[in-house]
Amino acid sequence: FRSMMLEEFLNFGQPQTNLNEAILLDYYVSAFWWAKEMDFTVHQLAGFMSLLHRLMENLQTKKMTLEDNIIEVAKEMVAVGHSQTEKEIALDYLSIDQAKDIISYPDRKS
User: Fold this and answer.
1) What is the reported pTM?
2) Is the predicted pLDDT of residue 99 greater than 70, yes or no?
3) Which residues contact 62 (CB under 8 A, 6 or more apart)?
4) Which of these, 12, 34, 51, 85, has the minimum number of CB atoms within 10 Å of its CB?
5) Which residues, 6+ apart, have CB-to-CB distance to 33 below 8 Å?
């Protein structure tokens, strides 16, 4: 896994000189390696990264509050173990324990 690939995916132009892009890149790379260490499958990893990306977009683009974002995560986690529509991020392939791990991800110690 190379951060260069993630830079291109996130459409970052200058993470070496743009502090905002550098912070976001570090956030996503850290999340990726955490999920790998948790033995997420490729499908689970993709869902986790999509969820993080959506939550970040909620903060940046929609200017959602932290409370609204937490509610968004709760809605996603309620669906764990159940099938969803194509429009939603499908997290039905996660186990309950993995969902709990994801919820506690922001509180982890680096």
Assistant:
1) 0.70
2) yes
3) none
4) 85
5) 1
